[in-house]
């Protein structure tokens, strides 16, 4: 058993100790333990999730470390040189600190397999940085302040499976050599200033599972050679300047689960689906919002979304990847969507979460009733289009639906009573259409604000503080022209006289006095005569 002695706030280890592995994670440390300087046998050191400030000491790089984890602290610099000499190091995690300056590199080619410098303030990187990482499998430099072109030296990393350079200030074109590799699984360049067109020469045997180029300045068309990436699960090229028609040719990718094309310049109709083939069968999130799509939506397109029809046993499962079978580190995909009128960045994508966003386009025609078959759908946004006709009653079968927005279309007719069966519905927007009739009062409809229904002159209900006619099918004297009111009054007087004569003047007169003010007799007579 190892005994620790505290001296002036530091932990003192005996010189005679032969410690190889030391885990001091989440110990509320505020200073780097100086006594570690005397542990010459240390190979695995974990000081993560503490509150250690200041510089990472230079003597640390002289230890025979194989794995070093200093993540989730408050380090700001590296003492002396940005280089280190640990040729035996295979895992280095400095993520979630405040380290500034140049990216630290090995002084000689190392055995590093995992390198995580994400969530820091690094601002510069040597162009030949990749040449020092000949065995790297996992490189994460996301959320720093790196700029310039993406180093071509990364293309020489033959074993690289994951590269995340997202949320930096990289500019220039996307190196074609990265997408032309057959062994890379995860490629994320999200949130940079990259421009130009996407590389076209993707080779047979492509192993890419995630491609995320969201929030850049990419132009041109989507490369048709992406169809060679049969393992592709996530494609996110939203918020760029891509000009193309709908990529129906991607429908044959058997594992594609997330397709984000929002905020581009895509145009045309969603057609060209080959008969006899199933398309987009694994999709769980499809976001085509804010483009220039037009035309009708065909029912057969939604009939292919098999994963949205099944209530499978995937509750709690997260979309994640193991870069290699031997590496314990997990990598989780992220996606940004609009849900319940809010922009959400989802860092853990549940496989059970199903969303369709077709808003801000020029779709027209009726809303396909086949959407009602997507039993596991959680969110549907078809607002700001040119849809016409009724809201399909089949949507009332979507018991998992939590968010639906059909606003700013040209839908007509009443809100179907089937909507009251949406027992999980927590957000609804039907504003600014041509809806008429009574707002359903069942289930949670009473909890929706008036803004959910505004802009529909023909709607009435408690939510709008606009009373509905209690008998919409009846025609009362108050709604008739004056000459008709006079005619009905003459008929009523004659009937009252008949009652007085037939039942006795006293009884008949009493009935007329009691029931006359309530219009029940008059209303019944108006309806049945």
At a glance:
With 529 residues, the chain is of the alpha/beta class. Among the domains are: 1-104 and 117-124, Ribonuclease Inhibitor (Leucine-rich repeat, LRR (right-handed beta-alpha superhelix)), CATH 3.80.10; 477-528, no CATH class. The strands form nine sheets. It has a 16-stranded parallel β-sheet, with no helix packed on it. It has a seven-stranded parallel β-sheet with strand order 24-26-32-34-36-38-39, with no helix packed on it. Strands 15-17-19-21 form a four-stranded parallel β-sheet, with no helix packed on it.
Tell me about this structure:
With 529 residues, the chain is α/β, with parallel strands linked by helices. Among the domains are: 1-104 and 117-124, Leucine-rich repeat, LRR (right-handed beta-alpha superhelix) (Alpha-Beta Horseshoe), CATH 3.80.10.10; 477-528, no CATH class. Helices cover 11% and strands 25% of the residues. Strands 3-4-6-9-12-14-16-18-20-22-23-25-31-33-35-37 form a 16-stranded parallel beta sheet, with no helix packed on it. A 7-stranded parallel beta sheet has the order 24-26-32-34-36-38-39, with no helix packed on it. A hairpin with a 2-residue loop joins strand 29 and strand 30 (342-346). Helix 4 runs antiparallel to helix 5. It is elongated. The model is unreliable at 1-9 and 473-529 (pLDDT under 50). It holds the Pfam family LRR_8. It is a single-pass type I membrane protein. It is found in: Cell membrane.
């Amino acid at each position: 058993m190892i005994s620790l002695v505290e001296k002036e706030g530091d932990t003192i280890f005996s010189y005679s100790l032969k410690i190889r592995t030391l885990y001091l994670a989440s110990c509320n440390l505020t200073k780097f333990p100086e006594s570690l300087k005397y542990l010459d046998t240390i190979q695995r050191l974990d000081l993560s999730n503490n509150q250690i400030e200041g510089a990472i000491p230079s003597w640390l790089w002289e230890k025979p470390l194989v794995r070093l984890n200093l993540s989730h602290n408050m380090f700001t610099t590296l003492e002396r040189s940005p280089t280190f000499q640990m040729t035996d190091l295979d895992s280095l995690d400095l993520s979630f600190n405040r380290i500034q300056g140049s990216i630290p590199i090995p002084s000689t080619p190392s055995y590093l397999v995992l390198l995580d410098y994400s969530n820091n303030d690094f601002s510069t990187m040597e162009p030949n940085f990749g040449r020092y990482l000949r065995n790297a499998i996992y490189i994460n430099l996301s959320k720093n302040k790196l700029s310039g072109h993406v180093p071509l030296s990364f293309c020489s990393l033959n074993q690289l499976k994951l590269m995340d350079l997202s949320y930096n200030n990289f500019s220039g074109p996307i190196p074609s050599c990265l997408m032309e590799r057959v062994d890379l699984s995860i490629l994320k360049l999200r949130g940079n200033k990259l421009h130009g067109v996407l590389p076209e020469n993707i080779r047979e045997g492509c192993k890419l599972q995630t491609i995320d180029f969201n929030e850049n300045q990419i132009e041109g068309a989507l490369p048709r050679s992406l169809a060679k990436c049969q393992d592709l699960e996530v494609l996110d090229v939203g918020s760029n300047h891509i000009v193309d028609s709908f990529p129906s040719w991607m429908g044959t990718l058997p594992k594609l689960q997330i397709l984000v094309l929002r905020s581009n310049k895509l145009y045309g109709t969603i057609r060209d689906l080959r008969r006899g083939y199933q398309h987009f069968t694994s999709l769980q999130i499809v976001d085509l919002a804010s483009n220039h799509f037009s035309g009708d939506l065909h029912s057969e397109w939604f009939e292919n979304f098999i994963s949205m029809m099944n209530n499978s046993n995937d509750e709690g499962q997260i979309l994640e990847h193991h870069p290699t079978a031997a590496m314990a580190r997990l990598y989780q995909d992220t996606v940004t969507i609009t849900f319940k009128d809010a922009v959400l960045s989802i860092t853990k994508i549940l496989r059970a979460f199903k969303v369709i966003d077709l808003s801000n386009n020029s779709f027209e025609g009726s809303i396909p009733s086949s959407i009602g078959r997507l039993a596991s759908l959680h969110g549907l946004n078809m607002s700001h289009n040119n849809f016409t006709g009724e809201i399909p009653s089949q949507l009332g079968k979507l018991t998992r639906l939590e968010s639906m927005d059909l606003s700013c279309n040209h839908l007509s007719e009443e809100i179907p009573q089937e909507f009251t069966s949406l027992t999980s519905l927590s957000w609804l927007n039907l504003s600014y259409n041509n809806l008429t009739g009574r707002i359903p009062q069942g289930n949670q409809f009473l909890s929706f604000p008036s803004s959910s229904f505004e802009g529909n002159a023909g709607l009435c209900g408690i939510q709008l503080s606009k009373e509905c006619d209690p008998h919409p099918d009846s025609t009362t004297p108050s709604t008739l022209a004056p000459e008709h009111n006079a005619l009905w009054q003459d008929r009523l007087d004659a009937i009252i006289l008949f009652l007085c004569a037939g039942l006795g003047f006293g009884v008949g007169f009493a009935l007329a006095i009691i029931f006359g003010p309530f219009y029940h007799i008059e209303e019944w007579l108006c309806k049945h005569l």
